[in-house]
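Ligand: flavin-adenine dinucleotide. Inputs:
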Amino acid sequence: MLKPEQIAIVKATAPVVAQHAERITNVFYPLMFERYPEVRQVFNQAHQHGGTQPRALANAIVAYASNIENLDALRGAVERIVHKHVSLNITPPQYRIVGECLMEAIGRVLGDAVTSDVAAAWSAAYWQLAELLIAAEEREYQRKAAAPGGWRGTRRLRVLERKRESEVITSFWLEAADGGALMDFEPGQYLGLRLDIDGEIVQRNYSLSDSPNGRTYRISVKREPGGLVSNFLHDRVQPGFELDAFAPAGEFTLTDNSDPVLLLTAGVGQTPALPMLDRALARGRQVVYLHAALNSAVHAFRERIDALAARHANLRHAYIYSEPLAEDRPHHRGLVTREILQQYAPRDAEVYFLGPKPFMVQVNRMLRELRFAAERIRYEFFGPLEALD
Ligand SMILES: Cc1cc2nc3c(=O)[nH]c(=O)nc-3n(C[C@H](O)[C@H](O)[C@H](O)COP(=O)(O)OP(=O)(O)OC[C@H]3O[C@@H](n4cnc5c(N)ncnc54)[C@H](O)[C@@H]3O)c2cc1C
Ligand code: HEM
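Predicted complex:
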């Protein structure tokens, strides 16, 4: 527990930490990777170079310091961090490493302003948050280990089959190499994969793109230009290949109610929406499925959505192509617009969206202009959470 005087110090110094938060995290990560090279492999280095992960950590620290007396306000953010950590198997000893390097980075950036009292207060604050996360993560690890077909740590999965879904997306079906069952997951959740690529250990998340069936998981991967893991999967992974996976995690999941739902995706952002769609239809919900793509060459899962729409009167769907080929006949051409949203989206719908960042920024703005309630709008990032405004 933080002492009252430590709370006062954290509150008093929070503005200066906030002002320098990105500098602190930009010092923190290189310091930690140099001192503890073994930690490097759990992080996606592209998120370091793009600055999204240092920014996400900086935002988390600032939000925490500002709410030090009202941690309940952080519940959503904490839940997201816990799921992300659990998907990558973050462990308590790593918190000591992060704490040490973070405190040193704060000292380096803020210099003399960090008196011994200030250092002690921030260290206590760090450990209060760390213990909260560690406890929540442990609960999740235990829950997954106890679930039928569940596990803790890595489990060996074998590629059963692969299928080209579009010019850029390929699906991989995975089964347990031990022949056992695979735990159910919530539609919208993702796997953490650990691969050894020519001696380099790398970890990535991939959404589960088909509904749970107890025996196999499916992931659908877009080839990312210059991307390490996606190109490895596309070019070198065939049936029989084995990899390590952590149990499914994620809090971007379909709320269980009977309200209408709008699933709005672009590109490979479609993957978590596919099991969400199955679940929503199974619950008899009214569903609108809007998908944006460049054109038919890169449009995955069209046959599946068309087939579902033919069978379910409660599913309305439309495709929007920004660069249609001559023979393409999408429902709409160009980008997703307010008019398209107005035409399809029920006013009382819960909205789930995912796609490239510019798409998400625009969609978020349009939904707000159309007065969709903020608490009914949910979105996911295929990377650390970023600001949409
Ligand atoms: C929750 C979640 C779910 C996801 N679900 C899916 C999914 O269903 N399908 C899917 O395809 N992806 C998904 N992703 C994204 C996926 O995890 C990977 O980020 C993606 O496949 C790219 O990984 P990569 O190793 O191929 O590319 P990386 O090697 O990580 O590179 C990504 C990009 O950064 C560039 N880059 C890399 N290193 C540097 C550097 N040093 N300097 C400058 N640029 C650099 C690369 O050229 C490339 O363009 C998901 C991510 C998350 C967090
Ligand atoms: C109090 C301590 C910590 C805080 C506040 C924190 C905060 C965060 C935040 C905000 C994210 C981004 C979540 C998202 O939006 O996806 C994140 C992701 C992550 N965290 Fe932590 N974290 C802490 C401790 C740790 C520790 C101890 C490790 C292990 C070394 C760790 C490893 C990771 C990894 C690997 C990711 C994903 C990074 C990526 O996608 O590149 N974190 N954390």
